[in-house]
Amino acid sequence: MLQFNQLSYWEKSTFTEGIDFLLIGTGIVGSACALKLRELYPEAKIVMVERGYVSTGASTKNAGFACFGSVTELADDLLTMSENDVWATVDMRWRGLQRLIERFDPKAIDLRFPGSWDLLTTSETGQKAMLTDLIAHFNNETERITGHANCYSYDSGIASRCGFSGIDGGYFNRLEGELNTGKLFLETEKLLANAGIITLHGVEVLSVNSFENEVIAETSFGELKAAKAAVTVNGFARQLLRDNRILPARAQVVVTEKIAGFELPGTFHYQKGYYYFRSVGNRLLIGGGRNLDIEGETTTELITTAPITNALKELIETTILPGRSTNIDYEWSGIMGVGTEKKPIIELIQPNIGIAVRMGGMGVAIGSLAGEELAGML
Length: 378
Prior knowledge:
By secondary structure, the chain is of the alpha/beta class.
C-alpha cells in the first residue's frame, strides 16, 4: 500500500491535506462526534480514520442492547459509587438513548423497547427482600430522569413463560430495548456519507500529539496533520494514549444455530449484568462471563477463549434452553473500555486533542451523547 506522501495531488488534496478535524475511531462515539461537528461547522473538512475494514472495537460487536441500568447492577454500583454518580450515569445513558432515537428511524435499525429482565436464580432469592426494598427508590429516580413512572417491577412468571430452569423470576425494566447492531452501522455510514465526512479504513494511528497550531497523527501510512483531533477508540485508548484511567475489557459472545419457533420477549441480564442474552433471528445470542477471569479479559486481543465460551454454552444448556441440544454458529469478541469509575472520560487532554472513551460497556446508550459532548469541546 502507498504511503501518504506517495499519493497524487488529487488524493492528497481530497483526503489527507487541509483537515480541520481528524477523528480516530469510527464507532458509535466517533461517528456521533463527526456528525455533530458537521452541524457546528458546515464547511469544515472532517476526516475519520479506522484501523479495521469495519469498526474494530465494540460498536459492531456488541449484543445490541439499548439499556441503562438493571436492578442488581444498580444495587451493586451503589456499594462502590456515590448516589449522585450512579444516577448521573443512568441519566447520561438515558439521554444518549434518546439521541439515538432522534438520529435514526427505529425501523431502519430494528430498534424496539419490549423491556428487559434482570434474572434471579432460585439460589439467589435471599437477595430479593433487599432488592425489593430498593425498587421504590429506583422507580422514583428513574421517573425523575426519564419522566416515566414504575420502570421496575418483579416478574415471578418469566421463567415459566420462557422455559428457563433454576430461575425464580426477574426484575423487569419496561423502558429498555434492543436493536440490530449491523443495521445501526449501515445507517451510520449513510449519515456520514450524506454529511460529506471522509472515512479512511485500514489506517492505524500509532501516536497523536498537539503542537502550537496543529495536531500530528503518526499512522501506519505516514503523518496526518489536522487543526484538531478527537480520540474515540474507547477500549483501545490506553494503548494509544498511555492513559491509566482506561482499561480494555474483552467481552465474548456466541450465537446458536436457528431454533424453530424460538423467540424471547425482550433482553435478559444475569449475575449483575456479567451475562446477557436475547433472541435474534430465531437464534439465541448470549455474551459475558468476564467475571470468570477479570485479569485475563483485561486485554485488547480479539479472540474467544474456551473457558468462557464453554461457560456460555453451559448456561444455554442448563438454564436458558434446558433439555435442548443446539449448536453454536457464531462466536466473537469485542473490546470495551472500563475503569475504576463507571462514567466516560470526555475532555481535552492536550491543546486541540479531545477524548471520549471508557463507555463502561454502555456504548450503545452513552455513545451518541458522549460523541456530541466531545464535539462541543473541540
